[in-house]
Batch of 2 targets.
Target 1
Amino acid sequence: MQEIILASASPRRKQLLEQVGLEFSCMTADVDEEAFYNLHPGDLVKKLAWQKAQAVAGRTEQNIIIAADTVVVLDDVIMGKPLDREDARQKLTLLSGREHQVMTGICVVNQQNESHSTEFEVTKVWFRHLSNGEIQGYLDCGEWVDKAGGYGIQGLGALLIEKIDGCYFNVVGLPLSKLYQLLYKQGVYLLGGEAPNGVQGWN
């Protein structure tokens, strides 16, 4: 029986898969993300998702692997995770009162038949105009640590956002509807049907 492996240590992605009742294990995937920063953001997240999936595939056999990578893009420039508090402050100041995009690349690898599916999702996000006090208050909560763009929509970061256009779960880090479609292509039927390749993982 094939098992499902999430190629990520992200607690947010783990929680999203648990939310839809998926049974899986986690394996970390170390990839040099900066090596691909010359690519268009959409191509970048797909490339990194594929690289993460391959990193895990090299350590396991006959499984379904889910990998993802998320970036925040402002004016076609990728905003990575903050280096420190000051960098987070600068990122939030740039995002204040403006629209940006959150892009997530997803790759699902089926090791049994040596096939894979890769896509990416885009969500538009609008920040309110933030005061210096609001930015400092958000920095004080520490939620910005290890977050692309320096914020997390699933926490206090929700207070910074005026509206979004697109998939909310994409902004969290894993667009569930897109993932469902990719899993379906690989014989993992989360809403009925019978997986022809004997995949286990849905309860």
Target 2
Amino acid sequence: MQFVEEIVVDEFLPTVRSLLAGDLRDRGFTQSEVAEVLGISQSAVSKYAHGDVTVNERIAADERVQDLVDELGTGLAAGEISPVQALIELEILIREFESGGDLLAQLHEEAVPELADHGSSFRVHDPESDLRTSERVLSSLRRGLGMLETTSGFTGLIPAVGSNLVACIPDAEDVDDVAGVPGRIFDVKGRTTVPADPEFGVSEHVARVVLATRRHGGAATAAINITYEPELVDELIERGHVAAEFDESGDVASSVGAAIEDEPDATVLYQTGGMGIEPLIYVLGPDAESVAETIRSLV
């Protein structure tokens, strides 16, 4: 398994750095000056100068790479372009190269031929492809879960029914478009336990809350449920969140929808429980990492 980001790190960046280092040296920069401008060590510059770094000839021969190296070399030498601006320009070119059919996409599919075996209309590097969108959601969710697993004190916020951190694709319509943790997150002997990798379609309860929020104008794409304490709601409000109460004894979708219509900017939803219903707080956010960061601020 190889990700396109590995090709960027292993082939694109060394090639472009080598070309830029050579360009700046040709303009009269010393080895230490090149190192400072490119943010690399002098030993790395020496390796570039002596050809000790492998250059991808297809990347080096691309006219867009050559034009950008010349533009950046001219700007850096004249002090008209900062290293940060140069980095942004390279980032833009990388994204262009990753798009369907372009250079990095081609190199990636050659390295992983299976990527081309999903049908003629499928392109993993199409930014709008369903697979790429889903993988971004799952990647964000994994990072959020990793944050929670290493958050001391998070287990104290896990309700008896367990927590679940979920995230959905941008055009989510039902629970199959929402990813979560199979079996939920539990406190096992004081340790946050995530029993399996996140998947789509495995969370109904928290997923329905996110979907109901979005159907009634909310912008959140991720959420988590934690134990209810009035003090927690107060603390979240103090931290700038807008809170809204809903009644979970009825239809969740309708109750959440009504709460969002009353408080469109709500990022905290809560219900105080009832017969056979555990009181819970739902923290909403634009992505799984943001939600996890909010939870970390509570412990």
